[in-house]
Specification:
Number of strands of chain B: 0
Chains: A alpha+beta (about 450), B mainly alpha (about 300), C mainly alpha (about 290)
Number of domains of chain A: 2
Structural class of chain B: mainly alpha
Oligomer: heterotrimer
Order of helices and strands of chain B: HHHHHHHHHHHHH
Distance between the termini of chain B: 10 Å
Structural class of chain A: alpha+beta
Radius of gyration of chain A: 23 Å
Strand content of chain B: under 5%
Number of strands of chain A: 20
CATH topology of the largest domain in chain B: MetI-like fold
């Protein structure tokens, strides 16, 4: 329904959307976008620089209580240069700004519709954007319907089906049954445990797409025995990741060779820790660590629990007696986000996908000192000034080459210091009826439907 | 009768107040931060503070409760922290769906339960009796997610008789209705059997049979009505549970009912929504109990509502 | 009403023969014997698990994941390659413990509340019954989630949650029995001679409500096992890798079609246990007092 100034394709590559081109100042503080002409909102009002300014003024005003306030807070001001040119100024250098505009929250809504709906209760609001499909109705808990927008600015990429009906179906077995029975044409997602049910059926196919998720176990580097780098590396050697991928993930994953997934902008292949029990034991002996009792936190989803139990079994081989605590989501995040003094986390199994598709959002919230809980998600409580310096350098400039160099260095430091046990990058699985094509799950987990069509 | 009715209605008030206070306190005891859940993992501390203030979570507990109560009495249950829609709107969307499903499944349960129970009781200690009672026990402990998915596989995927899931015409209600009704049917069958057996052993029934009345006539004209009292109690209880406890069935069939909404809201720590739903569920529950009590009087004229 | 008729016979005067009669009747009930045998078998299986299981219940072998039943693995393996047969036997001890302790805990609290409520009546009765109403009007699931969330998951806490779950049922049944026993001559007599309240409750009321409590207890063990299983199903039960039946059942939910043995066998184990305790409970009721309404 919505489009941003820039956006991602189904491979998470940046693409021009409502902006035809853009410029950034070398110090990464001003960003100028040259907008596409002749674009109309679903309500018929024209898209222009004023509309863009309205959108970003709205999101950066804390009084509007919009969810993504924190993402765009860095924008100090938005100026209309002419009808189709708009200029953003940030309060400090922010090299990852472009990716932030590509974030799904950067979708531009029609100012006319938004103003009208401002006082109405939320359920009366009709979301109005510029995308190839427009909103028809939303019945919470039941379905969302969108239909073809006839005046779409790019007919070649426009809607190929009349309408989509999107239903929330929480039970995976049900989604698969819906697809098999022909009640659904596309499902997001298929759990690895059930993927075999789709294989070999002539009416359905698997829509697989490599994710930008990396999965890992963060070790609390401020507590024993994880203060010692040798212990952390030893655990990396102690895990037979491929065996877990083959059983729990049904083979749909590849070993993580960086804290970032290959499809994240700025990724560099660094190295993997091979499964080597001997080496693990040697390192632990050097560090003088044996018979450790500790805890591993994970979410209570089936897959997370299966992984946690597999990790538990393998860590036992090197003398780590791990208690798995699978917690319900809200409890887990409450525990994880406790202040360092109260935080009881030792080992944490988690996965992360940078929703901006940029290295900054894949590293900074997870590993920099400023991101210790409760501020953000540095569950390893890792504190490495060298790494922090590289992250900062990556934000000081808008020059892609300079940024890439900084992030490459940062990834090397992480792999060597091993604040995490590096596990895998997974492949997201959707199911699609053989009657249609063009739909896939985006690498960040969102269904990518706009290119869907009937064969 | 009328004063009894009024007294019973008045007695609901402390129960409902108790429920609302219990829910309120429990929600605050449960770990988990509604602001964090609403804002997402990557929100900053400032964002969270902001949301907490917006939800009134920075005030003292009694103050929060009284504010909520005051608004609720005026018909405003607040807004969901998840969808930002008014709580009453979201519940209003789901209640009819839940009622429909409950009506279907309680009908299924009562019909199957009564038939099985009566058959078993009239043929006591026969193979049919043992068979139906074992079947009833199977019904009680068959996990509904398993039953649901199996029914779906057979009747929707293989045979295409019914849609797999969702809400729509009557065909959408058949599979979830059976899934949900199966457990209650089993319980009703057991109670019907034992209660009918008890009545059949009583003197007046024996007399009736001895007088030469046809056995079938005895059962239906005399015994059944008297045997129904405990059955009505159980049906009432099950009705209340079905209205609240359809979570798993709703999840399996992607059915937009209140149960799912409740569980989703709990895991999301959507306090206003949870409070609203539970208040409504509790009201339904106590009202049904009241109806059950009134039914006793119809079934057994000896029961008076005086005291 | 039914209960009052039942206890009109002066059972307090000849308690021994009542229990002996009941025992004889129980032995004549084929279904109850069958239930009893199932229960005994499960108990024996759970106790003997460490000696007769072929594999360590938590030892993983990811390379032998999801194998169907075979001579090597009688009931197959789960996703982590653990032997399901061994896990079910070990799980018997765990599920039984939850069942027994959960029902006992609920029973103990419920009996005390029911006795007090029924005996004293008046304001005490009203408060207790309102509390029971409140708990009954509360969807069980939220209560369980809330209890577990507050005290944390784990085996002991599951027992507590399951116990609290059972309190209202016991309270109501005990209160009902007390109300009918209270009116009888021997209680009135005890009161006239000035026996203190706690003595009346202990010596005169309690023995007379023992029968319904025993029956309810047996059936509640089954309910407790089922409740614990659904808690595990919701991820709130015993923590991995504990081989609790409900947890094993829920581990298998994603493999219902591809590897049905993962869910089927733990499911059957739960079913057998519930069947056994229910048949035994039915038999006990018929033997002690067929008119008891439980």
């Amino acid at each position: 329904m919505f489009e941003g100034l820039v956006g991602f394709n189904e491979k998470m590559e940046m693409q021009p959307m409502l902006a035809e081109r853009w410029e950034a100042s070398p110090d990464a503080t001003t960003f100028t976008f040259y907008l596409r002409k002749g674009v109309k909102f679903h309500d018929g009002t024209p898209f222009n620089a004023e509309a863009v300014k309205y959108n970003f003024d709205r999101v950066t005003n804390p009084d509007n209580k919009l969810k993504r306030y924190s993402l765009y807070r860095i924008i100090a001001k938005t100026e209309v240069v002419d009808e189709y040119t708009v200029k953003f100024t940030t309060s400090e250098p922010f090299g990852a700004m472009l990716a932030t505009f590509a974030h799904p929250a950067g979708g531009i809504v029609s100012p006319a519709a938004a103003k009208q709906g401002a006082d109405a209760p939320a359920f009366g609001k009709k979301p109005v954007g510029t995308g190839p499909y427009k909103f028809v109705e939303w019945v919470p808990g039941d379905h969302l319907t969108v239909e073809k927008f006839a005046d779409y600015w790019n007919p070649a990429q426009g809607a190929k089906v009349d309408r989509f009906i999107i239903k929330p179906v929480p039970e995976a077995g049900t989604r698969i049954n819906m697809l098999l029975a022909g009640d659904a044409h596309f499902i997001n997602t298929v759990p690895y445990a059930q993927v075999k049910q789709l294989q070999g059926n002539p009416n359905v196919a698997i829509a697989a797409n490599e994710a930008i998720y990396t999965f890992w176990v963060a070790m609390n580097t401020q507590k024993e025995p994880f203060k010692d780098k040798r212990v952390r590396q030893a655990l990396n050697y102690a895990i037979d990741k491929q065996a877990i991928i083959d059983s729990v993930l049904a083979g749909y994953g590849k070993l993580a060779d960086s804290p970032l997934a290959p499809r994240v902008w700025g990724y560099k292949s660094v190295k993997t820790y091979p499964y080597d029990l001997q080496k693990a034991k040697e390192l632990l002996a050097q560090a003088g660590v044996s018979n450790v009792k500790t805890t591993l936190w994970s979410s209570d989803s089936t897959e997370a629990k299966q992984v946690a139990v597999a990790l538990q079994g393998q860590l036992k081989e090197v003398g780590f007696d791990v208690e798995v605590m699978a917690m319900e989501a809200a409890t887990l995040s409450a525990e994880r986000f406790k202040k360092p003094e109260e935080n009881k986390s030792m080992m944490n199994y988690a996965g992360w996908s940078p929703s901006t598709g940029d290295a900054d959002w894949g590293l900074r919230p997870l590993l920099s000192k400023e991101s210790w809980p409760p501020t953000s998600f540095n569950l390893a409580f890792w504190d490495n000034p060298e790494f922090d310096a590289q992250i900062k350098a990556g934000l000081q400039t808008a020059d892609p080459e300079k940024r890439k160099a900084a992030y490459a260095k940062a990834q090397e430091i992480v792999m060597e210091e091993a604040p995490w046990i590096f596990l895998w990058v997974n492949t997201l699985l959707g199911g699609i009826s053989t009657k249609c094509d063009g739909m896939v799950i985006q690498p960040d987990g969102i269904a990518y439907l706009r290119t869907g069509y009937f064969k | 009768m009328f004063t009894y009715f009024v007294r019973r209605i008045l007695a609901l008030i402390p129960t409902l107040l108790g429920v609302s206070i219990a829910v309120f306190l429990l929600l605050r005891l449960v770990p988990g931060d509604p602001a964090r859940m609403a804002a997402g993992l990557d929100a900053t501390e400032a964002d969270l503070e902001f949301i907490r203030r917006d939800l009134g979570l920075d005030k003292s507990l009694p103050e929060q409760y009284l504010t909520w109560l005051n608004r609720a009495l005026h018909g405003d249950m607040g807004r969901s922290t998840r969808t930002r829609n008014p709580v009453t709107y979201e519940i209003g969307l789901r209640l009819p769906a839940t009622w429909q499903l409950t009506a279907v499944s309680i009908t299924v349960a009562v019909v199957i339960g009564l038939v099985t129970g009566i058959t078993a009781a009239t043929r006591r200690n026969s193979l049919l009796d043992y068979g139906s009672m074992v079947a009833a026990l199977l019904g009680i402990c068959t996990p509904s997610f398993w039953l649901g998915l199996m029914l779906m596989l057979i009747f929707a995927v293989q045979l295409h008789w019914f849609p797999t899931s969702g809400r729509g015409d009557w065909r959408h209600l058949v599979l979830p209705g059976f899934t949900l009704g199966a457990g209650a049917a089993a319980i009703i069958a057991r109670v019907t059997r034992s209660s009918l057996l008890e009545v059949l052993n009583q003197d007046y029934i024996r007399t009736a049979v001895a007088k030469g009345l046809h056995e079938r006539a005895v059962i239906y004209r005399h015994a059944l009505k008297n045997a129904l009292i405990p059955v009505v109690t159980v049906v009432g209880l099950e009705f209340g549970y079905l209205l609240a406890g359809a979570v798993i069935t709703e999840t399996v069939f992607a059915y937009p009912g209140v149960g799912r909404l409740l569980v989703d809201s709990i895991s999301y720590r959507d306090f206003p929504m949870v409070q609203g739903i539970l208040l409504i569920l509790a009201s339904q529950f106590v009202l049904i109990n009241l109806v059950v009590d009134l039914l006793y009087g119809w079934l057994d004229p000896r029961i008076h509502y005086g005291n | 009403m039914a209960i009052s008729e039942a206890v009109e016979t002066p059972i307090a005067a000849r308690p021994r023969s009542l229990w002996r009669d009941a025992w004889t009747r129980l032995l004549r009930n084929r279904a109850a014997i069958f239930g009893g045998i199932i229960v005994l078998l499960i108990i024996a299986g759970g106790l003997a698990a460490p000696f007769i299981t072929p594999y360590d219940p938590i030892k993983q072998n990811l390379r032998a994941s999801l194998q169907p039943p075979s001579p090597t693995h009688l009931l197959g393996t789960d996703v982590h390659g653990r032997d399901i047969f061994s896990r079910i036997l070990y799980g018997a001890a765990i599920s039984l413990r939850i069942g027994f302790l959960g029902a006992l805990l609920g029973g103990a609290i419920g009996v005390v509340l029911g006795l007090v409520s029924g005996f004293y009546g008046g304001a005490v009765d009203m408060i207790i019954m309102r509390l029971v109403d409140i708990q009954l009007a509360f969807p069980g699931l939220l209560l369980a989630i809330a209890i577990i969330a507050v005290i944390g998951p784990g085996l002991e806490n599951v027992i507590i949650a399951v116990g609290i779950f059972s309190v209202p049922t016991f309270t109501r049944v005990v209160r009902g029995s007390v109300l009918s026993v209270k009116q009888q001559d021997f209680v009135t007599a005890a009161r006239t001679v000035g026996a203190p309240n706690h003595r009346i409750m202990r010596l005169h009321l309690f023995p007379n409500i023992l029968a319904p409590v025993l029956v309810l207890l047996t059936m509640r063990i089954a309910t407790a096992i089922l409740t614990a299983a659904s808690l595990s199903f919701l991820g709130l039960g015993a923590q991995p890798p504990t081989p609790e039946w409900g947890a094993m059942l829920s581990d298998g939910r994603d493999y219902l079609v591809l590897a049905p043995h993962v869910a089927t066998f733990p499911g059957l184990a739960i079913l057998l246990a519930v069947l056994g305790f229910n048949l035994l409970g039915d038999g006990l009721r018929d033997a002690l007092d067929p008119r008891m309404r439980i």
